[in-house]
Structures
1.
Amino acid sequence: MTGPLFQAHHLSRGFRLPGGRRLMAVDDVSFRLHQGETLALVGESGSGKTTLGRMVVGLTAPQSGSLTFAGSAIRAPRREVQMVFQDSAAALNPRHSIGESVMVPLVWALGLRRPAAEAQARALLDRVGLAADHFFARLPHELSGGQRQRVGIARALAPNPSVLVADEPVSALDVSVRAQILLLFRELRDERGLAALFITHDLGVVRSVAQRVLVLYRGQVVEQGPVAAVMDRPRHPYSQALRAATPVPNPDRQRPPVPRPPDLGDLPGCAFRARCPGAHAACAVPPTLRAVGGDHDVACHLAA
Ligand SMILES: Nc1ncnc2c1ncn2[C@@H]1O[C@H](COP(=O)(O)OP(=O)(O)OP(=O)(O)O)[C@@H](O)[C@H]1O
Ligand SMILES: [Mg+2]
């Protein structure tokens, strides 16, 4: 197949807030994933990353828009599209041994009988760095955060997917453990030729995992393009602010956090207008995503 393996076309999803207001958590988002490619999805808390990820794997129904896998439209959850969840502890049944948790998708999605499922679950645990002889019968609470995240990865890989959504898989982990899990993620992606949507609010990890980046602000794509272009020369003022807020190794040079957005009911036009240092009259009209060269798109009236 020469085209993209997976495509999201104009996905939108709103939620009704207490008081009747409606929040567009994801607003007209499109992207493509080629086999073996990782797209990093970045944006601050509440920007719609998890909602988009859940729509990709079929756990949240889009309000509008569609998904294509290998050229065909898909609606319901698919074996080929799996997710590593943001909260690895909550995603595991506390009463199931981790071996049992990894066996469940092998039995249900692949239809394996228990002896074959157990053998495969053991092989998967070994592969993610959890010696099966030691870990198979353990309960989730006996594991560290990094070990639980390894279980989450094994479980997502069990149905042998070709597309993986990884929702902040390292955010809750210590720096040293984080590096190990990122390495495992890259190895597994390369071994299996997985296409991946890697969700993170930490720009620091983007370069080490992804080829392309999509920046979300309040559910909208404000910028997308190759990692080098977006990270080295972000064009959108929000991407620039995100990059400026990325922690640097030397704590003396620690950068300020991106200021929190004001409440949602605000100015018409560009969603970033109220926070934008360069906002001017033209920003009363919502900008559309436009190409700026090199497969790089920006939604900003100011971006050159
Ligand atoms: N089931 C729901 N009902 C109502 N509002 C929701 C629901 N799920 C998400 N939201 C709202 O949609 C917005 C986007 O949430 P989402 O969890 O997708 O953001 P996120 O980018 O993953 O944030 P974080 O970085 O904190 O994980 C938020 O304002 C959130 O409160
Ligand atoms: Mg989230």
2.
Amino acid sequence: MKPVFRERDYTRVALLQSVLEAKGIQTFVRNQYSSTQIIGFPNPAFFPALCVVNDEDYEEARQILKDYLNEDGEKASLELPCPACGERNPGNFEICWNCGAALAQDSEQ
Ligand SMILES: [Zn+2]
């Protein structure tokens, strides 16, 4: 079981879960309730995490999410590289979807 997406906002995790389930990929959410229980505790390790049940679905799930998120929101075309792992994230992300690190926001340039 591998996490493919992690974000503090559970409603967004649940939305993406429905996207994957619609594609026939079995998923479950870890830490579903922790974001509301641990207020002010910013450790992404405790954020709700969308996981694939079967590891062989991992790459496909990531691709589906990438395609989906690239269509979602006008900032999404601007990709942000993760400072921790180097994974590229859609520009409307605040947290790396791969490792959960906080992404630098584009307030300056
Ligand atoms: Zn990362």
3.
Amino acid sequence: MEAYIIPIILATIIIAALCYYFALLPARNGFRVLMYHHIKPNQNDGLCVSSQNFEKHLTYLTQSNYHIISGSDLYNHLKSKSKLPENSVLITFDDAYQNFVDHALPVLNNNKMPAMVFVPTAYIGGVNEWDHGQEPLMNADTLKSLPTNIELAIHCHKHINYGASMLNVVEDDITSAERTLESLYIKYIPFLAYPYGAFPRHEKTFGLMKSIMKSRKIKAAFRIGNKINPLKPKPKYLIKRLDIRGDENFLAFKRKVKYGKL
Ligand SMILES: [Zn+2]
């Protein structure tokens, strides 16, 4: 036998054993929040998942005994009013793109699933100017006419980086977001997703920002972090989300949902 055959056989056995081990591990306990951006037919890249793959994701979640919860379910859990079911999943969409209505909503409705959309309120009815893009965002009428399984929350006002902004700028931005939604009579859950997932990393500065959010009406805020959230202690202003990307394969999606990013 050639000398190089033995290491190849050993490596194959080790890889197969690891795959088997991970497949048998139960899903990590806690609740997970999935973060999507664009859903479009036949397009998969960093920020866009194809509608075909999105459908596949939802089918997998249902068949694998994950419980899809709404933003209100999480709100009630954080307020200690109710317990979350095991293996809860909250599906979220950033930026309130029109392609959510065109391509994600029909799939969610077919599967009778709730979801939450984070709205950058300065750009309602406009385009993703913060990216110098031309992607249309839902207008106020569309946001107001979404079915009840879709709940809205704040993705700040001007899609600025809260991790690199002065606290008075952050406070003005949150105030503007709340006032915009209220002036347009758009109902929302008082949750906030940090644009770019960014927040002050300095503990004292973050503490001050948390006080600002509390003094406004914000009850919980979402970062990225790619981990499963614990049920206790309840994470309120640093809820982690799993970044669901179109350029990762289905196996990577399943692993991420089950354990978070390894
Ligand atoms: Zn965004």
